[in-house]
Amino acid sequence: MTTVADCVYSSGSNRRLIRYSLPILLATVISACGSSPNTEQAGQPANQEELIAGMHIVDCLLPGQVRSLGNQTYITARRPIKTTASDCNIRGGEYVAYDRADYKSALNVWMPAAKAGDADAQVNVGEIFEKGLGTEPNYQAAAIWYEKSAAQGNERALFNLGTLYEQGLGVPANKLKALNLYRQAWGLPEDNVIFQTTARKEQEQLRAALAEEIAAKDTQVRLLQKQISSLQEKLKAAAKARPASAGSTSADHDLRAEMESLQQLVTSLQQSRTQVQTQLAALPATSGPKLRAPTARTPLEAVETRATTSNAVTPTMIGDLNFGKYYALIIGNRQYRSLSSLDTPWNDARELATILETMYGFQVELLLDADRFSIMNSINALHDKLGENDNLLIYYAGHGNLVDIGERNTGYWLPVNADPPPNDSFWVSNEFITNHLGRIEAKRVLVVADSCYGGLLSSSPGHLFFGTGAQNNKLDYIRYKLPRRSRLLLSSGGDKPVIDAGGEGHSVFARELINALKSNTQVLSAPDLFTTIKEPVTRRALANNFAQEPVYKSIKGAGHEVGDFFFVPRANN
Fold this sequence. Notes:
This protein has helices spanning about 25-35, 40-45, 50-55, 85-90, 105-115, 120-130, 140-150, 155-165, 175-185, 195-240, 250-280, 345-360, 370-385, 430-440, 475-480, 510-520, 525-545; strands spanning about 10, 15, 55-60, 65-70, 70-75, 80-85, 305, 315-320, 320-325, 325-330, 365-370, 390-395, 400-405, 410-415, 430, 445-450, 485-490, 525, 550-555, 565. The strands form 7 sheets. The protein has a 6-stranded mixed sheet, sandwiched between helices. A 3-stranded antiparallel sheet has the order 7-8-9, with no helix packed on it. By secondary structure, the protein is an alpha+beta fold. Helix 7 packs antiparallel against helix 8, helix 10 runs antiparallel to helix 11 (about 250-280) and helix 12 packs parallel to helix 16. The protein starts with 8 loop residues before the first strand and ends in a 6-residue tail after the last strand.
């Protein structure tokens, strides 16, 4: 009889586990093995579903407040907020029970305040339209509400609108406009070196693309004009060959019709070329405005580092820079109850937890073979642990899956008690994770997902403001980035399956992540970490006959600014 542990992905002679639940393969397992009882239902508290329901972030309508004005009292309008269902209950609010199948219920909470001009409500309405929530996304409507909120200077609306322009969703694609919206959202002056460096790169690429488009149109016009000239010669030759008294033939008529059609194409191409030429002429000069001069350089290795100890969580300091406290939630799911078990997540999670504790001073919570309740409860509990200047790293290694909801897929982490597709009752949705990341106070958050479809945790496009820490003055870079919020995702394989082995007892991704953190001796930014591991992960995967490429981007809808995440190694290790 086939067992769940035998369910592996095969490619040629290689046999290896994939961190992904293959629906067709799992259907075979079900028929061979029968269904497995669900431990979460059978062996845990009966009120667990109520506790889980209370952890979800909901659109809550709080009651009005009683206020006094002179001798009169009045009740203010009800106020919409996003909070957990349990918190909404405690505060006497109203919400629709967690069911995202109908976007209208969410709109009913936010629309009155949005129409009244509340910028936060307007951006929430935009996000509801962009996500779709049970229906197809309406990007045009999302852009309209983002525009209203952005006009009031709302940073989240500016950022969200920028992502629409970057991808061309509901608005014309325009990466330069997207860059400018990001700049405004993150409070960057136009002469900021990060903005100018990225803008110039985009301008150069756009300039080259427009010039190439003009050249292609010119070539098409020349070819069409040659065809027209050839047809004209045919008409002249046919006229000479006929008697003077003879009129035009049907063949002449066809030639003239073809010439007219070709001439219309020429006119259309010339008009289009003029539009592209106008776009090209409107681009700023490549020299750009004068940049701000950097401050004096201070080598980071010459500055004293005071990091946390294993017995107490204290802020990590470099000179006068306060990096805050560091926390990590590390999840490694290996032995599944109804899905194929994996080989390496325990090794990956344990070694990463040790490195973060001993080398970087993190306070670590390690979850091995976590069920749905354990994962959701640990994420929910982070609200009480983290302060506004703290750092949080969430690492997940295990199965992942996706559900196709039309124009946009949604991703899931699969706890050890997850049922096979299509039963997603005990899966942990990306929406649950991102909603909580937007609510917690921590200044800097990095999610590292080593699972299939881990990149679906963020709907943001690529990272235009890549902002690598390898600047001429790294200390200036840190000083700029440190006070700003970050919500970042480092995924082992984007929106595709990833390999579970190939890294000497670890996954290929975990092996390179561990190597990079172990060998690091200076302050390491998240984009620099990504740059360090991207090529080695891809190379290791190819050596195992598997295509895999890590992805790095911001997490949309979670309050990301232009911040970064920094790994600060302990001194004298």
